[in-house]
């Protein structure tokens, strides 16, 4: 059984010269993040090592009497702060922009800086930023507010 497996799978070598010649280099060199009660990766590490509870029951984001909101939730600090001049976004647009979009711009920039790269040097290069994301709490909130307005009218 093992010899059959070896015979069938020894012909493929992902590190062979042929496969390496056709593969383009991919580098993941910078990282950024914001987490509950932690403004960056280092702050998160310190909080975790110090066993700080990052899930809180305060109502600084929502009134906790809403039936769909758990009593204790993790909240990101200062989601309404955004440097509109730095990112070239009009203040009125930034005010109505989903906070997730603002955070995305900030963290893409921070990840580039973390990689030790001057962002201006990337202009005109084949550089990509790949992001994993899901729905935003702001989108859900706006949807429910609009729904409630339409139901009242």
From TrEMBL:
Domain Beta-ketoacyl synthase-like N-terminal per the UniProt entry, residue ranges: 24-145
Pfam families cross-referenced by the UniProt entry: ketoacyl-synt
Alphabetized InterPro entries for the sequence: Ketoacyl_synth_N (IPR014030), PKS_NRPS_Biosynth_Enz (IPR050091), Thiolase-like (IPR016039)
Coiled coil: none
Gene3D superfamilies: 3.40.47.10
GO biological process: fatty acid biosynthetic process
GO molecular function, one term: fatty acid synthase activity
Protein name: Beta-ketoacyl synthase-like N-terminal domain-containing protein
């Amino acid at each position: 059984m093992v010899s059959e497996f070896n015979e069938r799978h020894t012909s493929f070598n992902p590190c062979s010269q042929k496969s390496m010649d056709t593969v383009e280099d991919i580098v993941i060199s910078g990282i950024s993040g914001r987490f509950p009660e932690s403004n960056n990766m280092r702050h998160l590490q310190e909080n975790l090592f110090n066993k700080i509870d990052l899930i809180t029951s305060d109502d600084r984001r929502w009134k906790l009497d809403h039936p769909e909101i758990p009593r204790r939730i993790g909240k990101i600090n200062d989601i309404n702060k955004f440097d509109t001049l730095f990112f070239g976004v009009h203040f009125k647009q930034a005010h109505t922009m989903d906070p997730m979009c603002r955070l995305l711009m900030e963290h893409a920039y921070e990840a580039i800086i973390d990689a030790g790269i001057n962002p201006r040097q990337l202009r005109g290069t084949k550089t990509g930023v790949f992001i994993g994301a899901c729905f935003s709490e702001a989108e859900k909130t706006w949807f429910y507010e609009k729904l409630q307005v339409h139901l009242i009218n």
